Amino acid sequence: MAKQLQAIRGMNDILPEQSPVWSWLEDNVRHILAQYGYREMRVPIVEFTNLFARGIGENTDVVEKEMYTFEDRGGDSLTLRPEATACCVRAGIQNGLFHNQQQRLWTSGPMFRYERPQKGRYRQFHQVSVETFGMDGPDIDAELILMTWNLWKRLGLDEHVTLELNTLADLESRKNYREALIAYLEQHKDALDEDSKRRMYVNPLRVLDSKDKGTQSILGEAPKLHDYMDDDSREHFARLCAILDDAGVKYVVNQRLVRGLDYYNRTVFEWITSALGSQGTVCGGGRYDGLVEQLGGKPTKACGFAMGMERLILLLETCNLVPEDVNKTVDAALVTFGDVGTYGMVFAEKLRQASPNLRLQVSCGGGSVKSQMKRADKSGADIALVIGEDEKQNGTVTVKFLRDDKPQITCTLEELVARGEISG
Ligand code: ATP
Ligand code: MG
What we know:
- The chain is built from 15 helices and 16 strands.
- It has helices at residues 19-35, 49-56, 61-66, 85-94, 139-155, 171-187, 194-202, 213-219, 231-247, 291-294, 309-318, 343-354, 369-378, 389-394, 413-419; strands spanning 39-40, 46-48, 68-71, 77-80, 103-112, 124-133, 162-167, 252-253, 265-272, 281-287, 302-308, 332-336, 360-362, 383-387, 397-401, 409-411.
- Bound molecules: adenosine-5'-triphosphate (ATP) and magnesium ion.
- Adenosine-5'-triphosphate (ATP) is lined by residues 83, 113, 115, 120-122, 125, 127, 260, 279, 281-284, 306, 308, 310-311.
């Protein structure tokens, strides 16, 4: 027998039992984004490889070892997008969205990274990515954080996540800091993990982010970026913190927070939960003022974040925050028996016209009344609309209440709509 076909490891089907939770989360995200005046942009899933190599940074995990890169039939090197910020910047430059303009944009969809699949970490995963352009902050930085905070409150997650905040200062300060950090790490080279030994020259700030215990113990005494910070960045950070303080957002300043991608400067932040093990970051972002120019556009200030939808769903489920009724997709089920010909199908169509919000499922394929009623019950419907020869004869329908202890009624379609039994 042929081997059963399998999906690629780390690339998951979202089954019909799960998709309502996704839709519910996405609706909430859309609602919040609309509240702040953000506009959706849809960008391709595949781009030329050099966009990510140039945009994300050659010495990042993503570019070094996580990209799905292949040659197409024309010999071009293409990559399945590992994140969407570089894509939005490419699209914005190409379509003239940036120069002398302010933009508040968002995009969403699958991202691809060749990582070791585990809970909260997949090879195809989904992000909502929010990007702003043409605003130098710190008010827009604060707006992005406040927006995520509002989303957590709307979802009931605000008690389950904490905000970590840092500033990476400007390029010049980072350069000075980089030298100091390398000098310090060189003194303790033997105690560093292999990855950090390799990184300390190409991307020393990433060493700060190492999960290795030995490396972490050395970092306690390492020079601090904030001691090398330029005045403007210091002022920017202080004003951001003031807005968050006055708005009542709690945060922890974590000087080791650097984020995985190279393009950040000044503000960086992550929303973290302890409920998902080491896959604890549900949302991360910051300022990336250099990226537009780096990808060939005119200098454009930018700030954004991305949130991981799988991790958010895992967290919502872990905290029991998914409303019970999200899986309810049918309000009424239509059951027919006897020789009613086309009456049932036509009745259902008329009812859908008269009551557009009603979610009505017709029991297609017939079967005994008992088996149809069983299916109606399983569908989650509150009522069964039963049609037999009598109903056909009289132009009526019989309504059976599946969840309430109420006597059945027989009425016309107009009466049914007028009674409001089928709210929908
Ligand atoms: P991590 O440190 O967990 O690898 P990251 O810094 O690589 O995360 P980002 O590039 O900042 O992640 O992506 C933003 C968000 O997307 C993350 O906070 C996370 O919620 C989600 N995410 C990233 N990689 C994955 C993945 N492989 N599977 C599922 N979600 C992911
Ligand atoms: Mg990662």
